[in-house]
Amino acid sequence: MKSIHQAQFESVAAVQQGLADVDYIASREIATSVYLGFNLEKPILVEGPAGVGKTELAKSVAQILDVPLIRLQCYEGLDEAKALYEWKYAKQLLYTQLLKDKLGEMMAGAKGLAASMDRLHAHDDLFFSENFLEPRPLYQALHQERGCVLLIDEVDKSDPEFEAFLLEVLSDFQVSVPELGTIKAKVKPVVFLTSNNTREMSDALKRRCLHLYIPFPAPALERLILQRRVPGLSASLNRELVNFIQAVRELDLKKQPSVSETIDWAKTLLLLNAEHLSLDTVKETLNVFLKFETDIAIAQDHIAALVAGAIKPDDSFHARAG
Ligand SMILES: Nc1ncnc2c1ncn2[C@@H]1O[C@H](COP(=O)(O)OP(=O)(O)OP(=O)(O)O)[C@@H](O)[C@H]1O
Ligand SMILES: [Mg+2]
What we know:
The protein is an alpha/beta fold. It folds into three domains: 7-82 and 140-213, Rossmann fold; 85-132, no CATH class; 219-321, no CATH class. It is 52% helix and 12% strand. The protein contains 17 helices and nine strands. The chain has helices at residues 12-21, 28-40, 54-65, 80-83, 89-98, 100-107, 112-121, 124-127, 137-142, 160-172, 203-208, 219-229, 235-248, 259-271, 279-289, 293-310, 316-321, and strands at 44-47, 69-73, 85-87, 133-135, 149-153, 174-177, 181-184, 190-195, 210-213. A hairpin with a 3-residue loop joins strand 6 (174-177) and strand 7. Helix 13 packs across helix 16 (293-310). Residues 54-55, 153, 194 line the site of magnesium ion.
């Protein structure tokens, strides 16, 4: 089995630069995990709150490698058939209808049920061939000529039985289809698993993966993300906005605003032609980054102090943002 090779994965700094080139601003920790996962050929289990860039990381790596991203979205009840392959029963049935005459001819002269069955069995491989197989994400991932990034998204939503099956696939990148034999990956996929921690993953899965926890970004990193994702935003509004969001994350909220909400809020303020944070604009747009009425009420209680704190001049900003 071959491995994907890419010059941009030759050092941690190169990974960090490669990610930045596709607009993903990675901390040193993130770049290190990607560098190690790629070069040790280990899956990376990415955990962290919603909206911190777990899924986007896998997409960005696929973009750098210029290979397809194949995504397996996990959910309760996801089984092997939905993840690997299914037989196209309807197509099989249609073909037997269309070939009725031919099948009749083939059976002619066969004495009894057992003899007819034997004749049919001799043609099993026609009906259980790739023509009648519906490839699902894991199967597709094994079949990519140039490799792929396989994203097993929200693996914590799947059932423990499915996790056991995944372990098998991830250990040797091959699966056996009883009717077709063993299928081995042409090129080893680069694998990301993401989890929001709705349940603990098994020790066996953790052992097989590198673990990466993505927290909410530090202020300097969040400013760089905004710079990249919302290019029209002024440096001063960028700083105020990040200060504000970082302070809101300290409140006792049901759901803290994530990077995706910071980006949405920045785009909103840009649309409203805001040049600085003001009490009024913040009040009117709280619902862009807070998703629960109770959280909005808590923020309202502290709003004056939050705005005042956010717009304080901070000379170290340019030095820190690099
Ligand atoms: N480090 C980053 N650099 C650039 N953009 C980022 C970064 N982190 C997050 N984003 C932005 O935030 C958005 C949300 O990220 P993403 O969908 O990857 O979150 P997630 O962690 O997978 O969330 P969930 O747990 O809800 O699936 C992305 O579309 C991306 O634009
Ligand atoms: Mg996601």
